[in-house]
User: Fold these one by one.
Assistant:
Number 1:
Amino acid sequence: MNKIYLTAIVLVKIILFAQFTHAQDCDNKQWVKIVGRDIDWIETVNATKNYLKFAGKDSSLFAMIRTRLQKGTLEAYPTKDYQFNDPMSLKSINRIFADIYDTTQVTDPITGEELKKIVAIQFDNRLIIKYRIIEKWKYNTETGKTNITIVGLIPLTGAFLGNGSYIGQKGLLLVPFYDVKTVIDLYEQQHPDNRLAEKIWKNYFESNEKPTKKE
């Protein structure tokens, strides 16, 4: 009975994995798939979310990434360009972080007249608390080995309708991991208790959230 039970578990796992990644190469020896894994990269101190934004000279991870993006020292790609074929121009990158102008009703304190005032809304780095880790999975059918390589990082922010209704998450842009790794290393030197590797490892084995297929 135990052998039958264990066999059933193994069979279910194999079926689930087959649904997750399909053969890509013609010779059928290696299956390749690009998947996304959302990492909730915030610090929690006394049940209060810190959002990785600190006082003084310290900086959040996204602030460090954004600075380099807007200086042109870090390349970015559209969120679905997993092959990194079409780099974004600096103009396109800066457009993402440009101020948004809106109108608001104000009351003149002297006349009491209702007036419309144009206000500039700046992009708030604190909106980025999650990152989509883009992974390339390679499964060798001959050796039975699976190789997982992180290839990209997508900062995630909330997406809203015009009436303010939240409709989900939205990726800003895709950064090659081999480029942004130096920024992550610098950040982790300042925050040794908030490391990407630990977040990913915990996501593999402790999270109920499944990675999503990208191509």
Number 2:
Amino acid sequence: MKRLLCMLCAVVAICTAYAQPPMPPGHRPADPKAEAARNERMRRSVERMKQALDMTDKQAEQFVPVYQAYTREINGIRKDLKMLMDYYKDKPMDKKTAMKLVMVQLDADAEIIKAKKEYLRLFKMYLTPEQLSKVFLLDSKPARPHRQGPGGPGAPDPKPDGRPDAKPGERPAAPGGAPRP
């Protein structure tokens, strides 16, 4: 009888485990630290945007949820594209695959433009024309500027005439290497 009860419990446990819906691809269980970091990044982003657009508190309160939906949609398109590109990154590339990837990139660009146009109509309800132009200009700039000199990391700073060994105020040499008078 005990054995039958144990078997029954095992069957119920297995059936319950398989009855759960599968997790979507790329979905991980919520990590409290990662969630807190995401929320902090979003808060800082909202503050930067509020300052850059010179928004009132009321305007920001109404606009931010719409803007967050916009960024989620744009980032979702970009993430899907990146996953596909990463998949093909180390695979041999023939003409057919290359053309397919170019078309996928162009389709993703078209989706992004379509989403931007749709959200532009929504943004008009909350922002002035000047703020609207700034939203899309801010969106097109890289999040972090590259801090690298013209010669690459570790290269000496170029001098006034572009030669690394020139001294300030020194005139470039004449053709043939002779110094200029």
Number 3:
Amino acid sequence: MSTRLPLPRTRLGAALALIALALPGLALASSNWSSVGSTGTPDELCTGRVSFNNNDAGLVSGATALSCTIRYQVHDTWDGNGILGVYSGARFTDNGIYSEVRTRLRAHNTATGVLTTLATLSSNSYAPAATPQTRYLTNCVALNFNANSYFIEVDLVRTAAPAGAIPGLPVLGQLRLLRCQ
């Protein structure tokens, strides 16, 4: 016969509920930030020029030169203390010399209002492809959510193509910020 007293059901239920609530939060505390292209906010001048299709953001088809900027708010999805190092990446399609996808990780200082560009990535730094490709920067940048707000600006650019050439079709599929190891 055991001398141990059984744990009351209410305590056991409360302990299990606490564990069930805490585990997802612990997992999210070390999550990286990501956003699909279709969740961005385009500049007002881009009305009718940007197409949101499934998860992607791209310029409407055509041969005329066109450029639009889309912004993505970055939230602290890491550990909540506000200070960490990250590197950025993007999944994009750049089908040739008449298109480009540019990303800029920017900081907005909440005390001074000063905007600072922390990292930039250009699809023109890589070979063009008609299918999506994912590229990451190797430099680690420090983020301090206690002093700054962060966002990523994306420029979708199409330059004028000569007659008979395949027009540029820049598309953004995803943005990511990953914790530096």
